[in-house]
TrEMBL record:
Xref: InterPro entries: DEAD-box_helicase_OB_fold
GO molecular function, one term: helicase activity
Keywords: ATP-binding, Helicase, Hydrolase, Nucleotide-binding
Domain DEAD-box helicase OB fold: 61-127
Keyword ATP-binding tagged: yes
Descriptive protein name: DEAD-box helicase OB fold domain-containing protein
UniProt cross-references to Pfam families, sorted A to Z: OB_NTP_bind
Length: 130
């Protein structure tokens, strides 16, 4: 998504600055994609991409995120109003909270998260809702 826009803008650092995007992170994402393309070519795997207008684009993005972050999913327990990570829900029911820095305007039923932060409370940070 963002990577496509970065490439359309010829990997311009000024474009990143104007859009509040980390230039080095975008360069890294492009590099990882190129590596994956080379690996898939070497193993004669079919390369397939969906355009933004494809009805499957966002479904495929969600599937990829969930495949990579399977254990990093949290569920909102409606009775208590707290989140439980999938891993902790299966093991020890440890409560986690959405980090105050998140930009969500509501508490979604499910989230995928990138970081588990231990401070005075257990927080999950960098969340994606689906």
């Amino acid at each position: 998504m963002c990577t496509n826009a970065f490439l359309r803008n010829k990997q311009d650092p000024n474009w990143c600055y104007e859009n509040f995007i980390n230039y080095r992170a975008m360069k890294s994402a492009v590099s990882v994609r190129e590596q994956l393309v080379r690996i898939m070519s070497r193993f004669q795997m079919k390369l397939c991409s969906n355009s933004f207008t494809s009805p499957n684009y966002y479904v495929n993005m969600r599937k990829a995120l969930l495949a990579g972050y399977f254990w990093q999913v949290a569920h909102l327990e409606t009775a208590s109003g707290h989140c439980l990570t999938l891993k902790d829900k299966l093991e020890n029911n440890q409560v986690v909270h959405l980090h105050p820095s998140n930009c969500l305007d509501h508490k979604p039923e499910w989230v995928v998260y990138n970081e588990y932060v231990f401070t005075t409370r257990n927080f999950i940070r960098t969340v994606y809702t689906y």
